[in-house]
Amino acid sequence: MKSWLLFFALLLSISTIAQFDQTFHNKTLRLDYVHAGNHNSHVCYFDGFRIEPFWGGTKSNLIDTMEYGNYFFKVFDKNSGELIYSRGYSSLFGEWQTTLESKEISRSFFESVVMPLPRNEAEIVLYYRNKKGNFEEMYRKSYSPADYFVTTELRMPYPSFDTHIGNTDISKSVDIVILPDGYTKDEMGDFIADCQKFADALFAYEPYKSRKSDFNIRGILAPSRESGSDIPADSIYVNTILSTSFYTFDSERYNMITDHYSIRDLAANAPYDQIYVLVNTSKYGGGAIYNFYSVSVTGSEASDKIIVHEFGHAFAGLGDEYYDSSTSYNDFYPLDVEMWEPNITTLVDFDKKWKHLMDPDTPIPTPATLEYKNTLGVFEGGGYSAKGIYRPVQDCLMNTFRGEIFCPACTEAINKMIDFYTK
Question: For residue 201, which phi and psi values (nearest 5 degrees)?
Fold first, then answer.
């Protein structure tokens, strides 16, 4: 019986890959656009299409059924109208819209979405999540293989190297590309060593430790002119390849990048599902956005936990479980809507979250007392709010760095995402 099941699974896999090959080339189509607006409105402006040499994603799970992210895009075959690809994501612009600054001025940000390269004409539709948690269309653009303005130029060609290869089939692995920022040519050896430290840190924690063979990690040897990262409050500005900066949205530890095109240009030197930027500085900081990119510093004492925490955001869509006032967000989550992140809840629709993992005798909400210290429950405080938002455990790697493990809700979400990329 088991042999028949394996045979059927093999046939299904072969059929799925054959269907992919009929619909797509084994390359990436990238849609670049400018996302502009303020707190109340936004608009997208087309910038260009680019074809990149690798498709690092799955060839099986082409339709995103989880619908995580504050944005979503769908790719339709132009002739038949069939949905051929979709993905959820979030962006720096979307976070900026929750800041007080967005109520005072308008700004624009570079963004892009990537998909396997369609063989035929396609329609790409972008959606945003409204305040009720539903997706609304915000932009659409047609793609034609005959369009000679679609460029194949590799704008930032640099060599890549392997840090960890768990599966040589990139269509059945989670492929992480690591980009350096603030490493000079003479410090490329340090970057290679830091990539290994990244891998060691990631695989030191479950569930990544048990699923090491599902991951590939590659680095790009791209030096900067100067070392370090911008620190605007100290009038420190350095010439680096990706222009990382602390004090993003005036939050000191939030180290991010506004030039999203350069991130994509540099990442295009290797197949990837996730982009991780390592910053050559000892100052504490980092950040990550779902299916956008991750950033962390390499010289901090907390570097290992920063790595796994930030990757939890970008890869598995995990939300922050802390609720201090160190962020610049203003009412990031409406309390009358169930947020999409799998590890925090407003209890509006808790059945979709981790309720199925809980002991039915555990009270909801759960008191943050010694009795429930190691219990999976519903503890008030999370998502940057002390009231009205709840987290699964009293502490976790998505809360403070005193937590040494991912809680059961986070672990389930991470495993679910690994399966999505690899099964």
Answer: -65, -45
